[in-house]
Specification:
Strand order of the largest sheet: 3-2-1-6-7-4-5
CATH superfamily of the largest domain: Copper binding periplasmic protein CusF
Shape: elongated
Strand content: 25-35%
Radius of gyration: 21 Å
CATH topology of the largest domain: OB fold (Dihydrolipoamide Acetyltransferase, E2P)
Number of domains: 2
Largest sheet: 7 strands, mixed
CATH class of the largest domain: Mainly Beta
Length: 122
């Protein structure tokens, strides 16, 4: 009987630990607060030849991100091609691993468009 109680306690502890690890895996704080997997900043260059976007983060740090066919670009609740992103646009990038060697954006949300001097549209 004592062995059954200790085994039950061990499995209960293991389940609680795994559940906690799962919650921390979302964004580091179990879904509370801001996501650690997103960055905001101003686009410096969108280079379709290399499928990369260079932007200056809010912390004034230059960051390069890559995109692929699965990267979703959103602006005003609509999807757009990644080629529509232009220098000066203020964006939020969301990626699974921002600190990877070649981080790839899962979602790019255009928060505001660059101020252009011309009357042309996109």
């Amino acid at each position: 009987m004592k062995t059954k109680k200790s085994m039950f306690g061990f499995f209960l502890l293991a389940i609680l630990v795994l559940a906690g690890c799962h919650e921390f895996g979302h964004n580091g704080f179990g879904g509370y607060g801001g996501s650690r997997n997103s960055l905001r900043g101003t686009v410096q260059r969108n280079d379709p030849r290399y499928s990369s976007i260079l932007f200056e983060g809010d912390d004034r740090r230059a960051v390069a991100f890559y995109h692929n066919a699965q990267t979703r670009v959103r602006y005003r609740d609509r999807d757009y091609p990644v080629q529509n992103i232009q220098p000066g646009d203020y964006i939020e990038l969301v990626a699974r691993d921002i600190n990877a060697t070649n981080p790839t954006a899962d979602t790019i949300t255009v928060i505001s468009l660059a101020i252009s001097g011309g009357a042309g549209g996109r």
